[in-house]
Amino acid sequence: MKGIIRRFFASHLWLLLFFGIFIGFFLIFSGYKVVQHTSTDEYCMSCHVHPCADESWKQSSHYNNRSGMHIHCVDCHLPPPGSFKYLWAKGTTGLRDLWSYYTKDSADFNWEKRRKLEYAVKIVYNESCITCHPNLFPKTLSSDGALAHLYYEENAEKLNLQCISCHLDVGHYNPDYKHERNMDLGMTANTEPETMYEEAVKVDKFENFTEYIPNTAVSFNMIALSGGTFKMGSPENESYRNDDEGPVRDVTISPFFIGEAEVSWSEYLAFFGQTRSEGRINPQEIMERNAKALDVDAISGPTPPYGQPDQGWGYGKSPAITMSHYAAGIYCKWLSEKTGKTYRLPTEAEWEYATRANTQTPYFFEGKPKQFTEDRFWNKIFGADTTIINSFVIYTKNSDERTQAPDCVLANPFGLKNTLGNVMEYCSDWYAADAYAQTPQAVTDPNGPSRGEEHVVRGGAYNSDAKYIRSAARDYTRSVDWMKTDPQSPKSIWWLSDCTRVGFRVVCEPGSVLTDR
Length: 517
What we know:
Order of helices and strands: HHHHHHHHHHEEEEEHHHEHHHHEEEEEE
CATH topology of the largest domain: paralog of FGE (formylglycine-generating enzyme)
Strand order of the largest sheet: 1-2-5-12-6
Structural class: alpha+beta
Largest sheet: 5 strands, antiparallel
Number of helices: 17
Number of strands: 12
Helix content: 25-40%
Low-confidence stretches: none
CATH architecture of the largest domain: Alpha-Beta Complex
Mean pLDDT: 87
CATH class of the largest domain: Alpha Beta
Shape: globular
């Protein structure tokens, strides 16, 4: 039998060799055709059923441009062809997309989240950008663009910068995205308001009041908190507790007024409109000028931001976002001069006292972090009853990946809205991981460390998980990370280019209010 087989192969060797070569070429050709067919825009969009993917692509500069050249889906969403990385990415991405197409409902996808930079950097390959744009300094590039590209070359690896960090809408046009000087901010013509406040409100009692910003139609509510002693920080047995939340200290807080809600765009744009700096002024000069300013007319306000600071989410009552800690402080100074009262940022202790509202539980409402967090396998599989937390907090499960107006939630027992969630809130304190350890066991009106590099932010934001919005949870600013893509040199001292989840609320000192003027 073996002899028969050997004779067969010997007599048909050339036939078998030819057949093998034919099969090899057939497989290579078929594989090429499969890769070619599955790389067409039509094939991509047969699975990617984003409601406006095709429309936004055709409005983008990668389709609608002067050269007439069309950049296709795979040109951005896969590595450059001709490498194993390309085939691997294509295979793994394709399998994942097929799984999602046949097992998930596209109506449940959070498309708004998938338009954000944090998600886009995972599905766009920077080397593909560089392959098409090898010259970062063409003759047509402006001087501002050249500075921005030079900054990219020097910091791309260190700061993990990608081309789409600044050019997010080149592949899919987004009318709410803008990466240029926004000279029109706050300049939109409006009809004359029915009410213009001529002067700030007079307050002669320690009770809630509505403040009027003179020469504007803007007002906001302030809540009177009588102060008291509370335990600041979290006990060691609190779920998801971090080391910087302890040791727990007995803190006494003097009476103060605090904003019912975070400073709104209406309030902040009143400041911007009356103090804005038209051109690029040296940041050091601005800071020195504002440090010496004794009246509101001498305050230098923000220069126009790059892009759309509201992210297209709307102005009005929505919380003002993307301003720096310095800008928030100057706003308080301006507001103080306008109203004749002393407004400032809250201390971290005042913020936690106001948020806890005489509670010592993880939240000021019923429930524990383990009930609401997405971090637990049980909650991921079976879901969680979020009725209670949804009533009080705008966070990752109910925010639709954007900030919301304060009327969307109920107030805490002190009458404050959105102390947890919506946006992180600046405090006046410098951040230190061991700040509580440096504080006496019992202390009155602490102000935090005397120096530092970053400031405290509290409360979590619209994209925070439930475990990060506990009353005791602490966080801090990231001065470098939040300004990575600001193309200006020097960078703005007013606006954050890379953080959409921070805002602030104001405190008013009673001693500046309850006096005859």
